[in-house]
Amino acid sequence: MRHGRFDDPVTILVGMGFPVTIETVMEAYALLQDWPAPHRGGAHIAALNACKAGIVGEVDPETVRATLVAFARRNDILVETTSPCSNEAGAELTQISVMSH
């Protein structure tokens, strides 16, 4: 059993912009519990409630992950990741390769 592990981790910026990787429902819950009260809002409440539901098995880890991502985007702290095999990345590498020859 994976016990609340996300398929893909979520990286967010905390404090003075330091990246932190969240891999489990419990890590997400701990982060949200420690979030400063003046900066909590609807997205925080939704993500925290999803974590609580995920901890007791009422929702799957990927639902919790989705609410954490929404919270991070809303607060502009999500570190967007791109797949190195995506078309855009491949196109950029091709352009760089062609330009360097």
Quick overview:
The chain has 101 residues and is an alpha+beta fold.
- Order of helices and strands, N to C? EEHHHH
Strands of the largest sheet, in order across it? 1-2
DSSP helix fraction: 40-55%
Structural class, by secondary structure, is alpha+beta
**Total E-strand runs:** 2
Number of helices: 4
Residue fraction in strands: 15-25%
Q: Could you name the ranges where pLDDT drops below 50 across 5 or more consecutive residues?
A: 86-101
Largest sheet geometry: 2 strands, antiparallel
Give the N-terminus to C-terminus distance in angstroms.
50 Å
Instruction: Report the mean per-residue pLDDT as an integer.
Output: 85
**Radius of gyration of CA atoms, rounded to a whole number:** 17 Å
Task: Identify the overall geometry.
Answer: globular
- How many discrete structural domains? 1
